[in-house]
Design brief:
- About 30% of the residues lie in helices and about 20% in strands.
- It is an alpha+beta fold.
- Strands 7-8-9-14-11-12 form a six-stranded antiparallel β-sheet. It has a two-stranded parallel sheet with strand order 1-4.
- Strand 2 and strand 3 form a beta hairpin.
- The radius of gyration is 18 Å and the shape is globular.
- It starts with 6 loop residues before the first strand and ends with a strand.
- The relative contact order is 0.12.
Length: about 250
């Protein structure tokens, strides 16, 4: 049997949205199966750009508390869209300059490498938080651009960041673990620019995001799913993340 899925473009918390004076009832079983997850998107950027880890923690709590579980499992987890700046541009030194400057803006190498580290952490969250990762074309090869129309540039076939593409492929492979389909979300730590959570269903995976300026050690052993090796402890470098399968 085939079943169509209807995903709504809702930028806010879709469980209590009011538009034009009318309360919406998207999740009553007859309107939407799920929505684009702009709530996660904005919270991830706030955490990584503005060091607001509590914003991310609270946004996840709110969505998991307010949405039915079947809606959560089908959330369209985006980091950017055709209506917003490319994810990597959210970590540029300049944010959304005037259109005449945005058209010509190119990051310096230092700026690009710093933004790339932030972006990689964002992608880890996109692939491991409840929901389904949705990649906007070109992100996986480093395509940049500010708000519309600069976020809609053609795919850069002659300028592919192969290292970043490998990163996305690795995370796609990790995402195939069934724990990420509908595994329980468990909050562990959200302080000092460190965010740690787990997904568990038969197996258990710990995700650690270190957005601080210092290395972070977490006392847990298991299989490092990114490096594909067993580790006795999680030594997470500054501005990076780890995904550890513990059982």
């Amino acid at each position: 049997n085939r079943r169509n899925i209807l995903i709504g473009e809702v930028w806010e918390d879709a469980s209590n949205k009011v538009a034009y004076g009318v309360r919406k009832h998207y999740f009553n079983g007859s309107q939407l199966d799920s929505v684009m997850n702009y709530v996660y998107k904005n919270a991830i950027i706030s955490f990584l750009r503005e060091n607001n880890v509590l914003h991310l923690r609270n946004a996840i709590r709110r969505i998991l508390n307010n949405y039915p579980q079947d809606v959560v499992n089908k959330l369209m987890n985006v980091l950017d869209t055709h209506d917003t700046a490319r994810i990597i541009n959210n970590f540029a030194y300049v944010l959304n300059p005037p259109k005449d400057k945005a058209a010509q803006y190119r990051m310096t190498e230092l700026e690009y490498q710093n933004a790339l580290r932030k972006m990689k952490m964002a992608v880890i969250l996109q692939f491991t938080l409840p929901g389904v990762p949705c990649i906007y074309y070109g992100d996986e090869v480093g395509l940049s651009g500010f708000d519309d129309p600069f976020c809609r540039r053609a795919f850069p076939w002659d300028n592919i960041n192969h290292e970043l593409l490998t990163w996305y492929r690795q995370l796609g492979k990790i995402r195939n673990d069934k724990v990420f389909v509908d595994g329980e979300y468990q909050e562990i730590l959200a302080q000092n620019n460190i965010f740690i959570f787990a997904r568990e269903k038969i197996s258990k995976v710990i995700i650690i995001i270190n957005n601080s300026d210092e290395d972070y050690n977490y006392p847990i052993s298991g299989f490092d799913m990114l490096e594909e090796k067993y580790v006795d402890k999680a030594n997470v470098s500054s501005q990076s993340g780890m995904i550890i399968k513990v059982k």
